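Let us practice reading a record.
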Amino acid sequence: MQLNVVRTRCAQMLATLGIHGPTSVQQLAEQLTQQRGRPIRLVAHPQLGEELSGTWIELEGADVVFFDDGLAGVHQQHVIAHELAHIAFEHGYDEPLAPDVLATLLPDVDPRTVRRMLQRGSYSTHEEREAEVFASMLLQLSTHPVADDLGALPADARRRAADLTATFGSRRRDAR
């Protein structure tokens, strides 16, 4: 699928969710919770593995998005938004869950209650691209997408970043 078609589908999904301006991943999760009638829990986890930065597990009564607790700022927000995009677009399919993965992430959950789990390799290239574009578009709507990261910069770099934001803004016109 061509990028312009993917961007159009993502813009339509943002509109369907009522997202037209600055929105946090927490607000997106709340919007999806209301739309789907299922709670979504966002959970930082220290043991996702070297190649996995986030995953979505659909349980019988809730959706759980795990993300690597070592991620920070915009990267963390992008990973969460990416996983929420999979929920919004209802990506993936039912597949057996590796018992050791479930035991690590949700040790108190009966494996029979897991309806779906997405992780790298379990969804199509199209779904991956759609989730990436959606996450990027959502973060572009943020008025200050890197505000949380600026505190870690040296004072001179913070000043230059503030000057650039004042000059060019932080919203992209093509985000929608």
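A brief commentary: Confidence is low (pLDDT under 50) at residues 171-176.
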